[in-house]
Write a structure and sequence with these properties.
The protein is of the alpha/beta class and 129 residues long. Helices cover 39% and strands 22% of the residues. The chain is built from five helices and five strands, in the order E-H-E-H-E-H-E-H-E-H. The chain has a five-stranded parallel sheet, sandwiched between helices.
Length: 129
């Protein structure tokens, strides 16, 4: 079964870059791309989402605040925080984010995060093995 992913970044060019990476990955279903974090909470409440890749610094609410809101849900997705500010990796650790990607990230780094999720037994196909 595919890993269901949502992307959040207020920079359209970075949304395009990351969506291009996911569209070319096997067993990853890109459910949506959002420029505003507030819309993501409602989307995740209404749709099963496995992973959320979110920028940290955004105009409406931060990726850290988004992660905290998502963690309150009955079945929260794994949240991967992304930023060009390395100091935010400590914040990601403090809120128990699933991972942190420093911008500019590479295709290999994104693929490694997906593989980490899959190997941790978080995808439905792991039950079949």
């Amino acid at each position: 079964m595919s890993i269901r992913v949502v992307i959040v970044d207020n920079a359209p060019e970075l949304l395009d870059k990351l969506s291009g990476i996911f569209k070319n990955m096997n067993d990853v279903e890109l459910l949506g791309c959002f420029e505003e974090a507030v819309a993501v909470v409602e989307f995740v409440k209404e749709n099963p989402v496995d992973m959320v890749f979110t920028d940290i610094v955004m105009p409406d609410i931060s990726g850290i605040s988004l992660a905290k809101e998502l963690h309150k849900l009955k079945t929260p997705p794994a949240v991967v925080l992304m930023s060009s500010i390395p100091g935010f990796s400590l914040e990601a650790w403090k809120i128990q984010a699933y991972g942190f990607l420093e911008k500019p990230y590479t295709r290999a780094q994104v693929e490694q995060m997906i593989q980490k999720y899959r190997k941790a037994g978080n995808s439905d196909d792991s039950v079949l093995k």
